[in-house]
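Q: I'm a student working through a structural biology exercise. My instructor gave each of us a protein and asked us to get a predicted structure, then write a short paragraph describing it. Mine is Ferritin-like domain-containing protein. I'm not confident about reading structure output yet, so if you can add a plain explanation after the C-alpha cells, that would really help. Here is the sequence I was given:
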Amino acid sequence: MKKTINVSNQGVTLDTSRRNFLKLGGIGLAMAGLTLIGCDDDNDYGMMDDGQIFDLGTGDVGVLNYAYALEQLEADFYTKVVNNFYSGISSVEKELFTDLYHHEVIHRDFFKAAISGVTQKVLPTLQFQYTNVNFNDRNSVLATAKALEDTGVAAYNGAGKYITNPAYLVIAGKIVSVEARHASAIRNLINPGSTDFSGDDVIDANGLDLAKEPKDIVMAAGGFIKTPFTWKERGIS
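A: Happy to help. First, here is the predicted structure for Ferritin-like domain-containing protein. I'll explain a few features afterward.
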C-alpha cells in the first residue's frame, strides 16, 4: 500500500526577523508543504534481529533512516551547545549556533515524520556521547561542529546514488546545500576571512564536495553514537 505524507510549516516558531545567509537558507525545503510519495509500507524494513539491534532497512527507507541518524546526532550536539554556551561566546556566535540548532532540529523532525509516513520501521531515538568534547571550550565546540558538518555533507553526497525516489533525491539535495552552508559558516568562525570553506580536505580536484560511503561515515561518527544499529545492505553491522 502506498502512503502520502504532507509536511507543512504549521507550528514552526523559528524567528525570521534576523536576515543572514543561514536564517532561511534552504530551511523551507522541509516546511513548504512538501508531498512525498512513500514506499510500500508492507515491506520488511528495519526488522529487529534477535539481539534487538535495529537495522536501517533496504532501499530508500534505509537511506532515510541513515539520514535521520545523522540529523539526530547534529540536533543533539547543537542542543547541548545552545543549552550551555561556552565561556566568552560572542553575540554573533550565539546567533549562529542558535540558527544551526533550529535547522538541525527541523531536519531531524522532518525525517522522522517522512519515514513514519511510509513505514513503521523508524529508527528509534539514539543516545550519544561526547567523550572528547569540552562544551565550555570554544575550540573544542568549533572543532566538533566542523567535523560533524563536513561529515554530514559528505554523507548526503555519498548516499544520493542509492536513492531511487526522485522526490527523496530532491529533498536530500536541498538539505545537503544547507549542511554545506553550515560547514562554511563554522569554518569561517574558526579562521575568519579565509578560503577554508573550500579547503582541499572537503573539496576534490574537480571543485566538488567530497562524497563518502555510508560505511566510512558511520565509522567516522561512530564515536559519538552509543545506540548500536546496523545497515546490512550497505555492509554496516
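A: Here are two points you could use in your paragraph. The chain has five helices and four strands. The helical segments are 59-83, 91-116, 138-159, 166-190, 214-221. It's a good idea to check both against the output above yourself.
Q: Great, thank you!
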